[in-house]
Design goal:
Elements: H1 2-7, H2 12-26, E1 31-34, E2 37-40, H3 42-74, E3 75-80, H4 86-96, E4 101-106, H5 109-117, E5 123-126, E6 136-149, E7 161-162, H6 164-167, E8 171-175, H7 182-191, E9 197-202, H8 208-213, E10 219-222, H9 223-226, E11 236-239, E12 244-252, H10 259-274
Parallel strand pairs: 3-4, 3-5, 7-11, 8-9
Antiparallel strand pairs: 1-2, 5-12, 6-10, 6-11, 6-12
Helix pairs in contact: 4-10
Amino acid sequence: MTRAADELYMSQSHLSHVISEMEEELGVKLFDREGRGIKLNPCGREFYRDVTTLMNQYDDACKRVRASYMRQITQLTIVTNVSTYIPSLIKETHDMLPSMSVQQYSATRRKMIRMLLAGEADYAICCPILTEAPDLESSLLRVEQGVIIYPEGHWLVQQKMVSFDEVKKERFINVGVGYGTRDVQDIYFRKFGVSPNIAIETTDTASIYDYVEKGLGIAIAPKAMTERHPVFKNRYVDIAEGTAATIGLTWRKGSYISETMKAFLEVSTNFFAKLA
């Protein structure tokens, strides 16, 4: 009893009182007295096992909730339809905020809206900028010019600028409806009476560079990322019609903006500004 009281930083008399109160509340004796000492009886041993399990579960619950909180304040979920930009943006984010963990998903425009409204994503990076949902708020990141990328040895190597009419018979690598610049491209195609011959359609906007490099067709790509590309930085032509698309960062109105989200907004704004 003396050693137990010392461990608990209380007097022996107070410890004895606590034990007596607990036994009275339970209606059973937990200890057998042996001379000046005590030991657990069968009821005490049973109670000790159950309480130990409960205390361990409580400790585990505390650890889990703290870990969950840490993930929430350092984890960011991003959904996008322009994955071409994301690796470079995440690299810059990690350089400035090494403790941040990012989950990134690709989705169509409609799905991005649903994910934001349902709280399944913190931010959406969308092209064109999301403006049609009144419960969402957006910040313009960039107005991006489109260029045409082409395979090695293609006749476009002789050109500096082409019109849609000049390339209307070419095989196009395109992204799916709702992804990246597809919506913008379709507007321009219709405007100039072009029905593109789509050879490959993909939901991975970054893969268009790979398909073009394999010689499977030409593609419209963002100029800023093309100028950073190791293969296509000197293998593209401008479009005479001056295609342009908006890119924006969007979040749900009224949602809690954590310090992590504030930091990512700043990093994103600076990243796209530097692409100019």
